[in-house]
Amino acid sequence: MTQKLKVGIYWAASCGGCEIATLEIAENILKFIEVADLVLCPCIADFKYDDVRAYPDGYIDVCFFNGGIRNSEAKEIAELLRKKSKTLVAFGACANWGGIPALANLYTKDAMIERSYITTESNDNPQGTLPQTSYKMPEGELHLPKLFDSVHKLDDVVDVDYYVPGCPPVAKQIWSCIEAIAAGKLPPKGSVIGVGDKSVCDECPFEKKTEGVRISKFKRPHLEKPDLTKKAELNNKPQCLLEQGFVCMGSATRSGCEAQCLKANMPCRGCYGPAEGVEDQGAKIASAIGSLVDSQGNSERSAEIVAQIVDPVGTFYRFGMGNSMLRVKKL
Fold first, then answer.
1. Domain locations in the chain?
2. Pairing of the two strands 5-11 and 60-66
């Protein structure tokens, strides 16, 4: 009998959605347990860090690491798992580019702590008590991880072998990655696994008009619905959501998600990261939007229209702040 693969799954600064997404491989879970054993997965079993430290170096065949690096604990465990794993995979948007947690890079560490523990309306903290990295108790000294000044992506702190993007990755993509590992047919190191080489627009059920489209109003999907009767000119499909005034990241985002949001009539939010050849996802979509704004040659009108986009940084860099040209707020 072939020896089973030893697989680790770990979360750092993340929501836990990537762990839940692994269950979406459905009946393939039975195939997974035939070829692999979980040797680390804090989400479902009480593994201890000392258990992992006791593993020989390279003991774990592949570790799926999701979440950004927000504090000293995440960095320490990333370094430990790099040492203990033959193959380390940045799994999901947060590990790939910082994800939604990296939007915290728009604020200083002190400002976040003050908001979280002092000024939030629901707090009851009249003494202004703040978390401390160490505190002496009669029973001994307690320690908490040190919060970093910004959120980092995984490959900022350790060497990464492969990348699986998504928030979370879709089930088909997860399973294709597992099959490639089990069969020993992985692509060259540094590859992005289970995705397309084009943009989400190439998978989209909507279609761009050929020419002459200008945006005079930006809409929010929870306030207005797309007009599905408004057809494009080529294949009689509904007109592109961006052209209808909904901020859609599809043209700047890598394909592979099967356009699931767009098939539900929701604009792409960009969770699969920059499309092939795109250096900065947010800058790319900002450029695309700029070319469609109905400015009529008037800069003031252009500014008024663009101002209708609520939270442009949080929209354009929702998942990629930690990998962008911005990275952190310049103070």
1. 5-100+149-183, 113-148, 195-331
2. parallel
| Polymer length of the chain | 331
- Cα separation, 291 vs 302, whole angstroms: 11
Helix (H, G, I), strand (E, B) or coil at 88: strand
Beta bridge pairs of residue 11: 66
- At 17, list the tokens: 């959605």
Q: Residue 224's CB: how many other CB atoms inside 10 A?
A: 12
Report pLDDT for 299: 87
The per-residue pLDDT of the chain, averaged, comes to 91
Phi, psi of 301 (to 5 degrees): -65, -40
Question: The tokens of 226 are what?
Answer: 């797309």
Q: Find the DSSP H helices in 55-120.
A: 72-84, 93-97, 109-114
Q: What Cα–Cα distance (Å) separates residue 314 from each residue in 48, 53, 157, 319?
A: 36, 38, 24, 9
3-class SS of residue 103: helix
Residue 283 neighbours by CB under 8 Å, 6+ apart: 316, 324, 325
Answer whether 271's CB lies under 8 Å from 97's CB. no
The whole-angstrom separation of Cα 284 and Cα 277 is 11
Give the C-alpha separation, 116 to 96, whole Å: 26
User: Could you tell me the two tokens for 159?
Assistant: 């060497």
**pTM for this one?**
0.91
The crossing angle, in degrees rounded to 10, of helices 171-183 and 28-35 is 30
**Residue-wise pLDDT tens digits, 279-318:** 999 999 999 998 899 988 888 999 999 999 999 999 999 9
- Name which CATH class applies to 5-100+149-183: alpha beta
